[in-house]
């Protein structure tokens, strides 16, 4: 049962963190009834709060609550001051929360003090400091004669207890009216964390709906953009699309550019003098060179002719004719 309750409280505090911005260490405002109940059931204050809140806790006691605790104590005849109660932890464990409700800094009613700390402005109804209220049902004090044999004293004690219980109920109902106020109370030696009140639940639902609405709007924007892109692709690039996708002319890459040549500065002696021009090539030489190049191009362009071989008869006749010519030449030489 304890594991289920701790899991439930962890989820509840996580909802308070998401919706109202609570964070560790949690600031817990304790009242006088809560301290008496914790002492009566022999509970450790800070460990019990941390087990209930499932996180680090920082308990605080207001100055008006301290005044209410000390006012209920009997007075020491030696010092004429009230005794320090046993249920009041030391200041190192339970620091004091200074509250100034008037110019004289006089304490006011404990219920009014705690409600003013939880909700300073009743118009906004907001728990600005993220306080957690820790309270309990009133416990009979030692000087209360609830079981007295004297009926008059018994009626007085019962009237005081009724008044205290009404104040406790008013404190819890006033805290529930403010959205985002977790309430811890002690019931039968068990520290309990109340679920979301109606105003807190309304705020939580509103936050959830706003998140859902934002998510839906974002999804619709994405879908509309996809549809628009498809329509633009089907219809072809429009002027607006061209304008959107047109790229501006960029400067050339400086690494790919040719570096400019530096001009040599003329000396004062050479100023006014013209530089010697390079000798121009002779037109004749240029003509001969051009003709030679053209001839080479024509020769390379012409195809070589194949030599045709003559028949054997024509070869023998040519050889006999050549022999007769040679005999006549030799005979003429002899003459």
From TrEMBL:
<dbReference type="GO" id="GO:0032040">
    <property type="term" value="C:small-subunit processome"/>
</dbReference>
<feature type="compositionally biased region" description="Basic and acidic residues">
    <location>
        <begin position="266"/>
        <end position="287"/>
    </location>
</feature>
<feature type="compositionally biased region" description="Basic residues">
    <location>
        <begin position="302"/>
        <end position="312"/>
    </location>
</feature>
<feature type="domain" description="UTP23 sensor motif region">
    <location>
        <begin position="247"/>
        <end position="261"/>
    </location>
</feature>
<keyword id="KW-0539">Nucleus</keyword>
<dbReference type="InterPro" id="IPR057776">
    <property type="entry name" value="UTP23_sensor"/>
</dbReference>
<dbReference type="InterPro" id="IPR006984">
    <property type="entry name" value="Fcf1/UTP23"/>
</dbReference>
<dbReference type="Pfam" id="PF24779">
    <property type="entry name" value="UTP23_sensor"/>
</dbReference>
<protein>
    <submittedName>
        <fullName>rRNA processing protein, putative</fullName>
    </submittedName>
</protein>
<dbReference type="Pfam" id="PF04900">
    <property type="entry name" value="Fcf1"/>
</dbReference>
<feature type="region of interest" description="Disordered">
    <location>
        <begin position="228"/>
        <end position="335"/>
    </location>
</feature>
């Amino acid at each position: 049962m304890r594991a289920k309750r701790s899991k439930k409280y962890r989820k509840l505090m996580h909802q308070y963190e998401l919706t109202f911005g609570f964070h560790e260490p949690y600031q817990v405002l304790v009242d006088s009834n809560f301290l008496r109940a914790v002492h009566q059931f022999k509970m450790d204050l800070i460990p019990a709060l941390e087990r209930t809140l499932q996180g680090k806790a920082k308990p605080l006691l207001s100055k008006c609550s301290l005044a209410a605790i000390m006012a209920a104590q009997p007075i020491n005849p030696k010092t004429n001051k009230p005794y320090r109660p046993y249920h009041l932890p030391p200041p190192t464990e339970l620091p004091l929360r200074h509250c100034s409700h008037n110019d004289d800094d006089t304490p006011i009613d404990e219920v009014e003090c705690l409600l003013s700390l939880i909700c300073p402005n009743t118009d906004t109804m907001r728990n600005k400091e993220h306080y957690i209220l820790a309270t309990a049902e009133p416990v009979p004090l030692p000087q209360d004669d609830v079981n007295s044999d004297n009926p008059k004293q018994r009626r007085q004690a019962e009237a005081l207890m009724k008044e205290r219980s009404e104040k406790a109920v008013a404190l819890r109902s006033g805290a529930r009216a403010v959205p985002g106020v977790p309430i811890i109370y002690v019931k039968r030696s068990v520290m309990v964390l109340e679920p979301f009140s109606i105003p807190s639940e309304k705020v939580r639902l509103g936050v959830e709906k706003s998140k859902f609405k934002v998510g839906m709007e974002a999804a619709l924007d994405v879908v509309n953009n996809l549809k628009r892109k498809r329509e633009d692709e089907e219809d072809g690039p429009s002027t607006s699309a061209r304008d959107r996708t047109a790229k501006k002319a960029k400067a050339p890459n400086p690494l790919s550019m040719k570096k400019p040549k530096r001009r040599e500065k003329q000396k004062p002696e050479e100023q006014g003098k013209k530089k010697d021009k390079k000798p121009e090539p002779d037109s004749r030489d240029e003509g001969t060179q051009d003709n030679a190049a053209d001839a080479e191009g024509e020769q390379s362009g012409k195809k070589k002719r194949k030599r045709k071989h003559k028949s054997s008869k024509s070869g023998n006749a040519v050889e006999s004719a050549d022999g007769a010519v040679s005999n006549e030449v030799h005979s003429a030489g002899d003459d």
